[in-house]
Amino acid sequence: MGLTLSEKILSAHLVEGEMIKGTEIGLRIDQTLTQDATGTMAYLEFEAMGVPRVRTERSVAYIDHNTLQNGFMNMDDHRFIASVAKKHGIYFSRPGNGICHQVHLERFGVPGKTLIGSDSHTPTGGGIGMLAMGAGGMDVAVAMGGGTYYITCPKIVKAELTGKLQPWVSAKDVILEMLRRLSVKGGVGKIIEYTGDGVKTLSVPERATITNMGTELGATTSIFPSDEITYEFLKAQGREDAYTPLSADEDAVYDEIIKIDFSKLVPMAACPHSPDAVKTVEEIGRMKIDQVCIGSCTNSSLMDMLKVAHILKGKTVHPDVSLSIAPGSKQVLTMLAENGALADILAAGARVLESACGPCIGMGQSPNSGGISLRTFNRNFEGRSGTKDGQVYLVSPELAAVSAINGVLTDPRELGQMPKFEMPEKFLINDNMIVEPAKESEMDGIEVLRGPNIKPFPISEPMQKDIAAGVSLKVGDNITTDHIMPAGAKILPLRSNIPEISKYCFAVCDESFHDRALEMGSSIIIGGSNYGQGSSREHAALAPLYLGVKAVITKSFARIHMANLINAGILPMTFANEGDYDKIEADDDLKIENIRDQIANGDKVVVKNITKNFEFECNISFSNRQKDMLYAGGLLNYTKNTNK
Ligand code: MIC
Ligand code: SF4
């Protein structure tokens, strides 16, 4: 029986367990990446492990999220990360060099290698055939130290692409179609592997748009084969040595098959407030718009920008629309400047932003109240733009650009004939914004620079015999980490200070949560299905830990957040009978007795609702390693215990 591409890479990196779907497997990690909003914690955790130098083939620290530098906190974090990186063998991509996923694809990604990043869109690397996954900062710290990364052995979905996209229909529409069909939960526990003749019609950046947003499906990762198109891309980046051809065997067996005929796809948009609320542009109609933002790790490649520049050339942005454009990297921006496309963009009245995440994470460009904003990004969760009632639609760059001119949502096919946009034979290569780490002999002399906002991460206690705690919050389905630990210009600078940032924990759902949880001392959160979807930010586990949350009981969890809870020593459980969710209310007192024994002895835990006087069962599914982590009070305590 042949193997899928994912199985080939997984088994080549397998260091623990067997390739049995649904069981825990341990993987060797070749590369890691961090960004600044999760990086400070990840490096504090790395320092706490006491490993002098990273043991990966390549680890890169990027600065791309917190680049507003409003106050001293951002730049303090940047200097901390720069100095830690230099000391411990990590490459450092300076602010301005670009968005981590875009730069990693351009300059570091290698087909067939494993990559984990403290950012949920790390699967962008799947565009060049990497097995790239998002992870919590602690998992990345462990991988940097040469430790194993654990996942649940995933199912493999074959996404068979056929035909050719119509002019002005783009890779974004392919992934929006996947989201329309599968929903934000459809990829949980799965790797989406793209195959079929349609693959050959997509450039590497287009493939990366698709794997990037596979994160919104909840997938473990997404991957394309590595073929002659991958070779051409790597060669144009001066990195042809990194190329290896990779594909699934002809007779590979998949767990599921999904077929997409490119010729049938039309321009689409994900409507507020979920990436899977997908409609065709025709269904939405010629809606008046207020703002257009082009960029983010999903759609900021040179090809995307060249298409946008072509559409804007000789036109003026509609007077009622604010258009901002953030090219994904210094390479992209410089090439646009050199070939004149930047002048076309500026002449049309676009507001050019630095090569960073920017508006995607609420760092500026928040829409007007109730404003309609078209964005080429990957997430449109409520309030993420910085405007609570902002109406964000996720669209392709082509659709965004033509709509910015017309002032209304416009089908880009109205542009008529599409010129052929060619990938350059040679990208402009200038790595002067990537700082190499110090030599091993020099590392002792490097001082790590710590600003006053950088506080130690909270340490959790070993698990107690019983948990007796009230319900501090009850929330519904699809709660995102943007609900649990919001981002944006005001809150992001607090990422290195858990006591401060925890004041905003769940503020989107309930502003009184912080005070109530602290007052209760110990508490439990009740959630619906797909709890913790979205980002990899471990702050969504560390802030609840700091506030005394001992357990989270839900209908189901998103992968990375569940791992982050266990890493923080917080017990994640799911209702054995979903109907019990309705019977519990905020403030109910719950009791879980002899937890260790219950966890050790089976797959169920009995919880007593003292207030309402009934018992209910929760499912647990922990590997022995996860059980030990929970007993120890999280990954760091566990690592310390096992290293004794
Ligand atoms: C996001 O897109 O939500 C982020 C900001 O990139 C996060 C990481 C973070 O919260 O720092 C992610 O996707 O993991
Ligand atoms: Fe940055 Fe947005 Fe990509 Fe997250 S999704 S890495 S905030 S550009």
Describe this structure in words.
The protein is an alpha/beta fold. It is 29% helix and 18% strand. The protein is built from 22 helices and 27 strands. The strands form 6 sheets. It has a 7-stranded mixed barrel, surrounded by 4 helices. The protein has a 6-stranded mixed beta sheet with strand order 7-6-3-4-5-20. A 5-stranded parallel beta sheet has the order 17-16-15-18-19, covered by helices on one side. β22, α17 and β23 (549-554) form a beta-alpha-beta unit. α2 crosses α3, α2 (36-49) crosses α5 (137-144) and α21 (624-632) packs across α22. It is globular. Residues 37-38, 65, 119-121, 134, 361, 487, 534-537 line the site of alpha-methylisocitric acid.
Set down the secondary structure blueprint.
Blueprint: H1 5-12, E1 14-16, E2 24-27, E3 31-34, H2 36-49, E4 58-62, H3 72-88, E5 91-93, H4 100-107, E6 114-117, E7 131-134, H5 137-144, E8 149-152, E9 155-162, H6 171-182, E10 190-195, H7 204-212, E11 221-223, H8 228-236, E12 256-261, E13 268-270, E14 278-280, H9 281-284, E15 291-294, H10 302-312, E16 322-325, H11 330-339, H12 341-347, E17 351-352, E18 372-375, E19 391-394, H13 397-406, E20 434-435, E21 467-474, H14 481-484, H15 498-501, H16 513-520, E22 523-526, H17 539-546, E23 549-554, H18 559-567, E24 571-575, H19 580-583, E25 589-592, H20 595-601, E26 604-609, E27 614-619, H21 624-632, H22 635-642
Parallel strand pairs: 3-4, 3-6, 4-5, 6-7, 9-10, 9-12, 10-11, 15-16, 15-18, 16-17, 18-19, 21-22, 22-23, 23-24
Antiparallel strand pairs: 1-2, 2-8, 5-20, 13-14, 21-25, 24-27, 25-26, 26-27
Helix pairs in contact: 2-3, 2-5, 6-7, 10-12, 10-13, 21-22
Bound molecules: alpha-methylisocitric acid and iron/sulfur cluster.
Iron/sulfur cluster (SF4) is lined by residues 65, 99, 119, 121, 296-297, 357, 360-361, 377-378.
